[in-house]
Known about the structure:
The complex is a heterodimer of chains A (about 250) and B (about 190). Chain A contains nine helices and seven strands; from the N terminus they run H-H-H-H-H-H-H-E-H-E-E-E-E-E-E-H. Chain A is of the alpha+beta class. Chain A has a seven-stranded antiparallel sheet, with helices on both faces. The longest helix of chain A is centred in the middle third of the chain and has 26 residues, at about 85-110. The model of chain A is unreliable at about 70-85 and about 110-115 (pLDDT under 50). Chain B has about 190 residues and is an all-alpha fold. Chain B has two domains: about 20-95, RNA polymerase sigma factor, region 2, helix turn helix motif (Rna Polymerase Sigma Factor, Chain: A, Orthogonal Bundle), CATH 1.10.1740.10; about 115-185, Arc Repressor Mutant, subunit A (Orthogonal Bundle), CATH 1.10.10.
Amino acid sequence: MPCEHSQLELHGYLDGELDAMGAANFEKHLEDCPDCKRVLAAEESLRSALQNAALYERAPESLRKNLLGTPEKKVTPMQSRRVSGFAWQWLAAAAVLFLAVAVGWGVWQRSQSPSSMQLVAASLVDAHLRSLQPGHLTDVESTDQHTVKPWFDGRLDFAPPVRDFSTDGFPLLGGRLDVVQGRTVAALVYGRRKHIVNVFVEKGPPAEGWSGFGSLQGYHWLAWQKDGFSFFAVSDVSAPDLNQLEQLCLSQ
Amino acid sequence: MGHPLVFYIGSARERTDVLEGEDRARFEAIVLPHLDAAFNLARWLLRSRGDAEDVAQEALLRAYRAFGTYRSGNPRAWLLQIVRNACFTWLRQNRMGEEFTEFDETTMPQESENPEALAIANSNREQLSRALEALPPAFREILVLRELEGCSYKEIAEVTSRPIGTVMSGLARARLQLRNALSQPQPKEARRAV
């Protein structure tokens, strides 16, 4: 009795994992298949029930403390043995110098190549990671766009568009200033289930590398433009989730 | 050269004054942001916060020791794979009869005549949590990864070492079984085997 499409395609569709063609085909099928329509409705209510029930359980502080407090020699018997503190500092300095030169070389070599996109993405993913450190996420913490937007007045030479998308599952959590590749940008912080999305905003046409989408170190990023602003979203939510946020932002 | 990892080394140094060691800083910057994901998965697989804390800690230490072999790729999937393996090992050793079964060994649930969107939508946290915990571990795992952790099919395939096709069919079965459990009148404690 169950329609065979309800097994795989329906789930791929629900999860945003079908390609454009597959999704269009399934939507067409959906029009003539009351079975799939019913199952899809049930799956959607299951999904929203699961996501609204606050089932995600964060790591207790004690776990973090235990891990960070573990004496290093216990964790890395191989690494910490032989170098004295003094020699270590010199080694570290040498390593940093080497890195700086290597990175500088990399930047110089790649500044005009397509993979400079990778470097830009790396620095924005890094800004995202930095924001997740305790106390770094927001300078102004508010779910009210009318509080967050004026906060940027006088702090930036432009007023970033700030909107709350709570009803669509992306509640605004606040905003902050961030520095990305030497430029001060607005960072809008959204929640997505238990995850954080940083949306970096700059005035004007996109800087080099602020385009396209991709993933880096398990984080997805997606860039878009609207009304003379450039946006760059970074998060560990899925790529379809970022697409949805982009669509919300582009709507209106 | 030009690999993004290099940037994490550079920036991680700035914010880890308490800790020493290049590997440690890198680990903290790349892997530790996924600590909540690790704990959440362990908590749902083991159905206990206390056990989850122990096993997650063990898994993180194991990940740290294996960090030398991690080069690039998705650190969340890499960590979660270690965590789930640690969980299933722990279950085998500590809870007889609760270990892992493959999807193929479980019976395919039947779609009910009329899937009850309304009953599902009205389920509260307690009911959802109980129904989720009553699922076989393999189903629970795949749902937690997809719905709570927001993993893509590709990531789930990586974490669970299964082909994507198996992930898709497993997800379909897991959801159906969970929906069926929620549409039925709740039999309270009967389903909960610990």
